[in-house]
Specification:
Elements: E1 11-18, E2 27-28, H1 33-38, E3 50-51, E4 57-58, H2 63-70, E5 74-81, H3 89-98, H4 109-117, E6 127-130, E7 146-148, H5 151-156, H6 159-181, H7 183-193, H8 196-199, H9 201-204, H10 206-210, H11 221-234, E8 241-247, H12 255-279, E9 286-292, E10 311-317, E11 323-325, E12 346-347, H13 348-359, H14 365-368
Parallel strand pairs: 1-8, 1-9, 5-11, 5-12, 6-7, 6-8
Antiparallel strand pairs: 2-4, 3-4, 5-10, 9-10
């Protein structure tokens, strides 16, 4: 079966790990001597990892995530990337946001999906970003997106207060993207959609008021963001795509303890999120995609790891067929991209296509810009 089982419309939650998560220290090839030889500083000791196959293990801080995997709820997409990977954070993330590796584009893949799901733009809550600013993935003239940095404040603010939050978000958006694509397209976009960002404020105000839960989320930013997703989803406001980001994964230095802390926060937050949905009988139509803009290099640099190419992604949910998808990239020297990176074994646009076609039931081709190999992660 693809989609969801309760007759309600499928919902996608996108979690962006900003900075380039180190996939090799997330899903660890713990029986591969090259892993340990290449990473004398940052390798996770064999005796500490959380094995889930004879050759692969989760990071020791990912206990709650492994429990979800053991329940069959986690599909691991190994070796995700694209040809000639760009190691720049800004450009790399931009490529993932627009599906355009060769030109700087102004329209995001999520926004295109929202335009297909709600072509009239009738519900300003069809797409919601939890965070400051607006990810380019959600940017498209005429497509309303609600961007919320604090759900509790957002619904309770006066009109002026909400307008200030909106204006601050739009100013950040403008400063981020004008250098790359020119102020003209940015200002045109803002003039068309500026007030759309506010349009859902009154509607979304009901979510915190209606919500009750026994789940005690941590005070971390990612846990609070996913709690906000749960609060809005369970309020039944018609949101089809939620988006949020978890930052800090650029671990050139001090990878341990930086990445372990992040992975622990992420794992706990995702576990609590799905427990919360389950408690509300609201998990049947939700799938989550967790991605990052690139992996890290195979060899460490004595303190952390530098920007690489192939990485990993995760698809989670009650209707997911858990397990391994695509191939774990080879660590053999003659197989490495640029002589030092994990190669990619599946194109990220095929994974977007998987989520769009098999979960949201919309045509991925005009959104991702072509036909790419998909996987089959849904029941």
């Amino acid at each position: 079966m693809t989609g969801n089982g309760n007759g309600s419309q499928p919902v996608l939650v996108v979690v962006q790990l900003s900075g380039g998560n180190d996939f090799m220290n997330t899903v660890i090839p713990y029986t591969n001597s090259t892993y340990y030889d290449s990473r004398p500083t940052v390798a996770i000791p064999h005796e500490k990892v959380l094995p889930f196959t004879d050759t692969l293990a989760f990071h020791p801080n990912m206990g709650p995530f492994k429990e979800l995997y053991d329940q069959g709820m986690v599909a691991i997409v190994q070796g995700i990337g694209y040809p000639d990977s760009n190691r720049s954070h800004f450009r790399g993330m931009d490529i993932w946001h627009t599906c355009e590796p060769h030109v700087v584009a102004t329209v995001g893949w999520v926004a295109k999906a929202l335009n297909t799901l709600d072509p009239e733009g009738s519900n300003p809550l069809t797409g919601i970003n939890f965070g400051v600013g607006l990810p380019r993935a959600m940017a498209m003239p005429g497509v309303p997106v609600t961007s919320v940095s604090n759900l509790d404040n957002y619904g309770l603010m006066t009109g002026i207060g909400a307008a200030e939050q909106r204006d601050r978000a739009l100013d950040i958006f403008k400063r981020m993207y004008a250098p790359a694509i020119g102020s003209g397209p940015v200002m045109e976009y803002l003039s068309q959609t500026g007030n759309d960002v506010l349009a859902g404020a009154d509607m979304i105000a009901v979510a915190p008021q209606q919500y009750e839960s026994t789940i005690e989320y941590a005070a971390t930013p990612i846990a609070q963001a996913l709690r906000d997703v749960a609060r809005v989803h369970t309020a039944g406001l018609g949101t089809r795509i939620f988006y949020t980001a978890h930052g800090g994964y650029d671990v050139h230095a001090n990878e341990n303890p930086a990445q372990p802390t992040l992975l622990g926060d992420l794992s706990a937050a995702i576990s609590d999120f799905f427990a919360d949905l389950r408690e509300h009988d609201a998990d049947d139509n939700v799938a989550m995609l967790v991605f990052t803009e690139f992996g890290r290099r195979v060899r460490d640099n004595g303190s952390g790891t530098d920007h690489g190419s192939g990485g990993g992604a995760f698809i989670l949910g009650k209707n997911v067929n858990g397990g391994l998808y695509a191939e774990y990239p080879s660590l053999a020297q003659d197989q490495l991209a640029n002589g030092e990176d994990l190669p990619h074994t599946i194109d990220f646009r095929g994974i977007y296509g998987t989520m769009l076609e098999q979960w949201l039931h919309i045509d991925p081709q005009p959104i991702v810009g072509g036909v790419y190999e998909q996987i089959g992660p849904f029941k």
